[in-house]
Request: fold
Amino acid sequence: MYARTRLLQVAKLLQTALMSALAATASGAVAATAAVAATAVAATAAVAGTAAAADTAAAAPDTGLSRADRAFVAKAAEGGKMEIAAGKLAETRAQDPTVRTFGQQMVLDHTRIDHALRALADARQMTLPDALAAHDQAMLGRLETLTGAEFDRHYAQLMVKDHVQDIKEFDKAASGAQDADVKAFATNTLPTLRHHLLLAKQLAAQQSKGTSPRSTSPTPTSP
Reply:
């Protein structure tokens, strides 16, 4: 539609230019005729170029995300960074071997999830946040002050709280995201998050009693 309108404008410009050229020729103004013709050619090229650019932009697919989808993706990226950073702390500060193993699993799983999320964001031309959110930084700061059994208890409780919130947000995106790939990412990640929550609850219960669970189940495969 836009291109057709522009073409009509070009036709009118050409008609006006040609009429001026004919009138100038009849009066013997050859130089004026050339000038008018040059102006008509330039105008035609400019209008045609504008129309072509507009048509190309209109035909290009909209790769953006809705505000809600963008907010979910950004928050998921921030949450994943926090899980990875906290897991790395658990690898070095936890006293209980089971807590250390859980921390290692968080690093592996959330690194894999982060790769899937970054591929999605790249495809939608979205830049993910590089820094942790302020409240995540505060939680990590608290963890960094702890060691041994105190670290184990606090880390396990944090993982329960964090995964409960994550599952709520991913459930919402899995059912309500507008972008199909965002919805698929949330849906495919939920089994891993639910498994993490199960393990975190086991850890928290055992740490509160001062004992360790005997074993943990493998994390289910997801994106």
